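Project standup — Tuesday

K.O.: blocked on the structure for the chain from last sprint. Re-posting the sequence here as requested.
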Amino acid sequence: MKKRGLALLIGASMVIGMAGCSGGGSGQTAAPAPAQTSAAAAADTTAAAGGQEAPATEAAKDYKDMTGKVVIYTSMYEDIIEAMDNKLDEVFPNMDIEFFYGGTGTLQSKVAAEMDSGKLGCDILMVAEPSYALELKEANILHPYKFSETDKLLFDYDPDGYWYPVRMLNMVLAYNPEKYSKDSLPNSFKDFAYDPEMKGSLSMGNPLTSGTSYAAIVALLDKYGEEYYKALGDQGVAIESGSVALTKLETGECKEVMILEESVLKKREEEGSMLEVIYPTDGVISTPSPIMIIDDAHSANGNAAACEAVEEWFLSTEGQKYIVAGWMHSVRSDYPNAPYDAIPTSEIMSGVMPVDWVKCYTQREEIRTLFQENVTVPQ
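H.V.: unblocked you, prediction finished:
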């Protein structure tokens, strides 16, 4: 009988939680999720948030001939993985697909340790931001796959097929309208660091362990220079997990946080939270999180053909339905619906703050060091 699993990875990203890349873990097999999580329920509906009609999906492909095992390392929320895991069980009935969940920093550390032996514990990898895909491509451990619908992708992808964007993560600001008015708070990333009224009442994720927080500080460095980091330090910005930051917003202890849009949307839908997103006036920092296949010579199960089929499903409109149900935006231009309570994807794309992914990769240590020299990061 085929078994499927969801495991957690131990790491520092456990405390980063939602503010970074939906990562963390306990090192034990996760307890089964409720029969119908919010994400699963949303994915099964035929209408999107706001009463819009959900997009029609293409005719389902038959993957019954696909067999063997595929292990996926990912930083997505556990309940999103559960919903996808159940669906993948239907789509690939003769395969054993297993997820391992951890923050991007944890996954990178795990992969680095495994690379020393020449063999990774996964076959597919989905982390928060593309710079790690550039690194793994350069290390010659990725398998190329030519996706047939690249013309439908909103973001750049590797022209040789070594990685594709699979979900769009947006760094935004958030506040509690029951405690503070939006007009009294910074509505831009610049003012987040420079408004003197915010000193001692701000929070953000840890760029040393969170892929999306790291992408954010690279974008902000390019836009505002090194002085931006100094300004964050002068503000006394707290570097902490998303769950802690959101709790502080609810109590009023914290006035505003720099956080992933999905973290707030998830809380609003699942808990009826009144916390609100501010889409910064100087541009949302959007991160196209990559999906990549490990080459058979380095993968856990040497099953590249099956991995190609799984990757194709994730990039299909059906697979993207589960991404959007998980409070993330689709990477496809022909998927018109935004996540629950989010503004349209097109509005975000019209004014994003750019991120230099090559710089993210080639200057990673220098940028992290510069940030630590200016901002207190818990050890």
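K.O.: great, moving the ticket to review. Residues 78-91 form the longest helix (14 residues). The chain is about 35% helix and 15% strand.
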